[in-house]
Design brief:
Layout (H helix, E strand, L loop, with lengths): L2 E5 L4 H14 L4 H4 L3 H4 L1 E7 L2 E11 L2 E9 L8 H15 L4 E7 L3 H6 L3 E9 L2 E9 L13
Parallel strand pairs: 4-5
Antiparallel strand pairs: 1-2, 2-3, 3-4, 5-7, 6-7
Length: 151
């Protein structure tokens, strides 16, 4: 099957995936899952044969890029799609000039992110009863010529 990961022109399929995975499957509160950051974020959408199967949200936080709301449908977990989404997010944020990428990892998934080059950089915190920890990945270079990242 053909897999395509790109910036979503319409975030609605991304929101539907997040609702299915985080709200319905994992029990997160919809009020916390969908926030004001969605409006200004870039949303990556993974599609297989035209069917949405994963998503991630990219946010600029000053000089740092953040990948968040990474989710994959149950049927596609364990296939490498999650890693492909993270790497697509890293690549997109690098294109935008960020040399530092962060994410909030569920503690149980930290090993997954460590394999992708992320290291812990903060204390464990609670997110709706699920332990999380900040992780970061430093890239070799940011925007050429030392220009700041795009807003």
């Amino acid at each position: 099957m053909s897999l395509r990961i790109g910036v979503a022109a319409d975030p609605a399929p991304c929101f539907a995936l997040r609702k299915a995975v985080f709200v319905e499957e994992q029990g997160f509160d919809p009020a916390g899952e969908f926030d004001a950051l969605d409006k200004d974020a870039e949303h990556l959408l993974a599609e297989e044969a035209g069917v949405p199967v994963g998503t991630a949200r990219l946010i600029a936080e000053g000089e740092t890029g953040r990948i968040g709301r990474i989710c994959v449908t149950r049927a596609r977990r364990g296939t490498g799609l999650g890693a492909a989404l993270v790497e697509a997010g890293v690549a997109r944020l690098a294109e935008r000039g960020f040399a530092r990428i962060v994410l909030g990892a569920q503690v149980r998934a930290m090993g997954f992110y460590e394999k992708l080059g992320f290291t812990p950089c903060g204390a464990v915190y609670d997110d709706e009863g699920v332990p999380h920890r900040e992780m970061e990945r430093q890239l070799q270079s940011g925007r050429p010529g030392g220009q700041p990242p795009e807003a």
